[in-house]
Amino acid sequence: MASSFQQLLSLLLLLLPSPLREHLSSTSHVAVDEFHPIFLVPGVSCSDLEARLTEAYQPSVPHCGAMKGKGWFGLWHNTSELLAHDYVQCFQEQMSLVYDPAINDYRNMPGVETRVPSFGSARGFRHKNPAKTLIAALENLGYRDGDTMFGAPYDSRHAPPVPGQTSEVYSRYFKDFMEAIELASNKKQKKVVVLGHSFGGMVALEFVRNTPMSWRQRYIKHLILVAPTLPYGFLEPTTTPLSTRSMWRSFESSIVNFPSPAVFGHEPLVITKQRNYSADEMEDFFAAIGFSEGIEPFRRRAAPKAKSFEAPMVPMTCINGVGNKTPLQLVFWDEDFDASPNAVYSDGDGKINLISVLAFDKEMARQLGQNKQFKSIKIDKAQHSTIVTDDFALNRVIQEIIEVNQIF
Ligand SMILES: *[C@@H]1O[C@H](CO)[C@@H](O)[C@H](O)[C@H]1NC(C)=O
Ligand SMILES: *[C@@H]1O[C@H](CO)[C@@H](O)[C@H](O)[C@H]1NC(C)=O
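Structure tokens for the assembled complex are given below, as produced in the milestone run.
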């Protein structure tokens, strides 16, 4: 019995792709100190945010001013605490951003200062799903936070700029990120791997694209994007509740993921009885849903992002889920944009449409200098957020991390 089990096991090992097979059959083969340091850029709600209220802060109701002059406190940190302390209204007010047309950038409300704690470490998001499972798997391989594994949390209210755009928040973030990479790389005498998931995939891609070419070539071993929200965009069949809507809509991240005309062109994406909206009519759609204030920042900041396709020119792997029902069109038949729409589905990871993924693959394959160092992996039935938590998908992601460490 035991021996037939062992036979079965060796047979299974043989069926595995070779790098994983080597890893599982002799872990000594990939010693951890041979690994390149890895930097994780987590998904959209994983990074904490701290705030400090200065004298300039004018609370809408007195109790929102309770933290005024009392130093830094966790603003986006623990939602049950917000509820427990009746801080939801204050939270929304202090989280909200203001678009400033004079500088074409977003800033905080007057008197609110913010910062992302624990930059450089994964400890700020190590207990949050889905990052948690990925971090545990990396630790299983032998990665250690602060030595071979690092975190690059970010302020997810803001969207990363494409080359040529400015963003005060991301200028600082990119600078910190470069310094952290230089430090880790110099210490280990190795280039680093940067891995981003979902919105963090877009942040990771834009980070690399915003660094000087010689810097990238010197420090970046590989860029791994797992289910990244790419510039080609998608539609989500969820409507934000009225109570938190103005806060969400004030974020730059709320306007950057709309479908791009470059891919979806004149196809109707939002369907109503009266009229349809295609990717190049998103401004009309904003007006129809009562979000006119989003039009200018959309035109000046989001639309240019959807036209920026230069490849990062570093070795890159894109890992996406396929084989899931993924919204392509939304139907608000009676033009009630507050009701949940019906969706028309096509293929993808449940959130990001395969059409966008294939357009990105094609674009990367077309660009000389990227085409020979681009790999696209599709994992059947892997879904957007569970691609780094479901064993079958996570194993494939881990296998790719092992593989890129073995490329010389
Ligand atoms: C969040 O806050 C609640 C209530 O104060 C507390 O019980 C819980 O332990 C906190 N969770 C974390 C992760 O800090
Ligand atoms: C909207 O698009 C749908 C699906 O393509 C089409 O059947 C319908 O005629 C269009 N409606 C209008 C008002 O153009």
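The first strand starts at residue 38 and ends at 41. The pocket of 2-acetamido-2-deoxy-beta-D-glucopyranose (ligand 1) is lined by residues 78, 80-81, 84 (CB under 6 Å). Further analysis is deferred to the final report.
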